[in-house]
Amino acid sequence: MKNYIYKVIIAAIAIILVFKLTIGKEISQINKKINYFSTKEGRKEIVNSIKKEMRKANDRENYLDDEERILIKNFIEKIKKELELKN
Question: Over the stretch 42-53, which tens digit does the pLDDT of each residue have?
Answer without folding.
Answer: 889 989 999 999
